[in-house]
């Protein structure tokens, strides 16, 4: 498997991997998988000796001389075998300025920014690539979890956060096409982990400076250093490195680190799993709970389906039998934790691709061959009937931990047969051939309405199931990552759309059909309103224009919500519309048409839930947290996820803090932990490799977290009604390692 890997493998990733919304079901078409594997073998054997043309190197000596920290500078590297920039992140993390306007590399003639990096720590590295705009003050660029790009005194116009594995030479790649800010997530490249773009569109000619910041840094918990061997602008993707030494063992564990509970061999794994299974076998809900996990001490009118109820002091869900219900759930409950292996085969001691006993551990994800060590380990633990035995164990564990909801992205076959209430992520939210900004469709087109009708039909398969709590319309729309004036962004190009036509008609009405009034307030010289269709804007024409754009953005979002809500209501009259699972409340635009939802959902990453009282007040609805988690790097995985803590004990305490604080609030009716199983060390389809699982990839629960979950979940109703005070423990702050 250790073959020479060429630059062609980078092109393979760029062509075939399109990062989509998180899904849990793999396409098991083995013919396609092995056809792709065959193609990749041909690619791997190509020569990688040719130096790409069109490389514009940055002056590393000049960058080194500009550094203030005396611990950083040029030195000989044993890893790269040449002089490199040795960098030690420090308090304040000023970063390194790699380019300012007037420097030699020409951004307008390049396609990629690349850098050779090496993270010396045991944990993953986080690299922030920040682009600043000439003579312009940017709005704050905020990422999920609340962290902001830049510093307290300056903020980039657009930023990319990139993850790298520890102690592995990596060529990071940033395609400059992403400066248009139309896509949040980058394609994956070999060895590079997840990369996320936030901010506003920026033309290469308007770049004033570029800064690289390296993390994480904390003076007590994270002290690391990096080597940067080169930084370049290139016309082509770079050649990959020669194969290195394997770093993943046959059980999917990293080989370079020891930790409590690390598996010694297959028999040790089976023994540990059997011990966990024996402890939860035959688990059931408390006698004070209904069969759905509702609370028998409080009852309302029963309808045979889940609904909402305000009792005068707090919001509740109501189970089909009428009992008060609060949803404690886990997302992504599935026998799946796969990750792509193309271009990184040399990192594994063993892969299951040629062993028929592990055929089900090989799959395809987003058109890329993927390997699943979780499935391989389940086959080792349970044998041929592994899926049924996994399901039985998982139901026992969920009930033992007092979870009463199978959360989003879970295996729907498992959910429907588990005897546990579940939520449904609807697939393929309606879109259109023309999008006006990121994933925002042409909402005033007939195409959008037609696709919404098709979208709603999938509810026919679930509309009579009493165990279904409700459905999420979609997950984390990309247009809502940060505040963006949608109507203004529609004029980034002269492209035609029905939404643009409707905006112009709206302006005609607002200005009484008087083009001279529009010209005067916008600072334009248009012949008529129709001439606006061909206009593009790099900046707001005037403050009044900014207000007009913003006001129509509200009209756009209302249409965006109204059309699919109309259609799903026609198909399913029984179940709750749980909303959009917004990543965070980036602006008041997200409240538009919120009255169409039965429950307002948000993904709330933090040490405690976000300000849900404000959400409930503005939306008029109860609130559900679709995702939250806390991770640590004290065990196998090198990244914490969006919110970090120092240890497994702190993960348990953080879970208890979050859930009990949340359910003490009268507006919160559900919180779902993300996610069931740890992510692969080398990254899932998009490159996340976080320690966020309830179980590891050997299906063994984290003891500390399991104990904390059971304690808190078992008393949610007492906390919600004031019979018990919320748990509270101070947890040392620590930087998050996520991308």
Description:
This protein has 739 residues and is of the alpha+beta class. Among the domains are: 1-50 and 338-371, no CATH class; 56-234, Galactose-binding domain-like (Jelly Rolls, Sandwich). The protein has 16 helices and 28 strands. Strands 1, 2, 3, 5, 8 and 11 form a six-stranded antiparallel sheet that branches. The protein has a five-stranded antiparallel sheet with strand order 4-10-6-7-9, with no helix packed on it. Strand 22 (435-437) and strand 23 form a beta hairpin. Helix 5 packs across helix 6 (386-400), helix 8 (446-456) runs parallel beside helix 12 and helix 14 (648-663) packs parallel to helix 15. The radius of gyration is 26 Å and the shape is globular. It starts with 7 loop residues before the first helix and ends in a 19-residue tail after the last helix.
